Amino acid sequence: MDTVHNPDRFMADLRQILSQGRKRIGILIGAGGPLSVRVDTSGKLDPKGQALIPGVNDLTNQALQKLSGNEAAAAAEIRKSLPDGGNIETILSKVRLLQTALGNTTVHGLDSAGYAALGRAICEAIGGIVGAKLPEGRTPYHELVSWVSGTQRAHSVEIFTTNYDLLIETAFEQAKAPYFDGFTGGHAPFFDPVTVAGNDLPPRWSRVWKLHGSLGWKSENGAVVRCGGADSTELVYPDHLKYDLTQKQPYAALFERLKRFLLTPDTVLLTTGFSFRDAHICAVLGEALAMNANAAVIALQFQTLAEEDPARKLAFEHPNLSVYASDAAVIGGISGPWRLGDLPKNWGEIRSSFWGKRGSNDAFLLGDFAKFCRFCALSYSPDLARPTEAAIPVDGPDSATVSA
To answer: Fewer CB within 10 A of the end CB, N or C, for the chain?
Structure first.
């Protein structure tokens, strides 16, 4: 017996959740977010252009290419020692570990002070790459903010991101839509964990939580402050082995906020552009989903289900985590391919927003961050109504089990 899933039903339900403004909704944006914004050589929007900010592998290569001399040699040796060559974050963690442990001892040509300088150089290289500005025109980030601010809400939308860039903040500010990112103050805003832990701001204020740090954060006089630009890069990655208690505080409070969000009744967390290869975040997700059966995570993945193994494994362990990949899904702990039913009345246009051609194959499209943001923005359109129960074909309203 084979199980199939009908995407029409699940997208009708998701569209209703997005448009009503009553549920607690969170969105976790990974590196695939800025990867979907394409620009030409002059920085203008171009669907056929290059990614505004590269993915993790390209970011690693580009950042390390900016190093020279002993620093480049040491980074290359560290990279060779890591499983599968590591990435920029695991390399940076190893650099900071060596900085803490070595003292005057030399490893790969650098002592503790040398690794401190290498860590700063890597962060500066990261900042130079991910500091790209949001291009003019209507980007996916603008469409996401348009959805966030498009209705009166009972609860704030909470956006969690592993990215260091300032793209989502720029989109909120251009739309004049208020948000809170954990910092308060005017001259040199300081991180305020008490307000992060609470929920005292009005629902119209969205939350933006930078789980891995951000450009523009720095340590000043024993506090973490936001300087408002992309020139400060010292806190772009949370390495728990290096930071003292004060510096750990942003990351500890933000990860706790993610857990607290998922432990709140009747919450939905949508993940987009996230690979599920971050062990810290996956641990928080797994623990919270096990504790709160009323929370739901919907992972919108770009690749085929077979290629999304980390997300798929977590979904098998936690039935309240669903994975919607390009060719198949895991829903309620059950894996099966997508299968469309008969086209419901007045549903063709909305179906085209989540289902269509990718290359030569039909595919579920919302694993693409740009498609997801467009789907969110379209959720308010009165012309794209939810199909009636009678319009959902009986061969697969949620999922169906059929003979092979």
So the answer is: C
The verdict on 156 and 272 lying in the same domain is yes
Report phi then psi at 248, rounded to 5: -70, -25
DSSP codes joined into one string, 304-342: -GGG-HHHHHHHHH-TTEEEE-SSEEEETTEEEEB---S
Same domain, 256 and 337: yes
Q: Do 330 and 189 share a structural domain? A: yes
The residue out of 130, 155, 184 marking a domain boundary is 130
Q: How far apart are CA 29 and CA 51, in angstroms?
A: 16
pLDDT of residue 399: 53
Residues 18 and 150 in one domain: yes
pLDDT mean for each 10 residues of the chain (404 residues)? 86 90 91 90 87 88 91 92 84 86 88 90 86 89 92 90 92 93 82 82 90 84 75 57 52 90 93 91 94 94 95 95 96 94 82 91 94 91 48 43 37
Q: Does residue 221 share a domain with residue 82?
A: no
Residue 49 located in a structural domain: no
**What's the confidence (pLDDT) of residue 147?**
93
Give the count of domains, the chain. Answer: 2
Domain boundary among 130, 149, 183: 130
- Please identify which residue in the block is written with the tokens 């290419």: 65
Q: Which domain holds residue 92?
A: 56-130
The per-residue pLDDT for 237 is: 59
Three-state SS at 224 = strand
Q: For residue 353, is it within any domain?
A: yes
Strand partners, 338: 5
Same domain flag for 126 and 139: no
Distance CA 317, CA 306 (A): 16
Alpha-carbon distance 279 to 297, whole Å?
16
pLDDT at 194: 84
Smallest Cα–Cα separation from 264: which of 331, 197, 191?
197
Establish if 51 belongs to a structural domain: no
SS3 call for 265: coil
Can you tell me the distance from the alpha carbon of 171 to that of 177, in angstroms, rounded to the nearest whole number? Answer: 9
- Written as one letter, the residue type at 227 is C
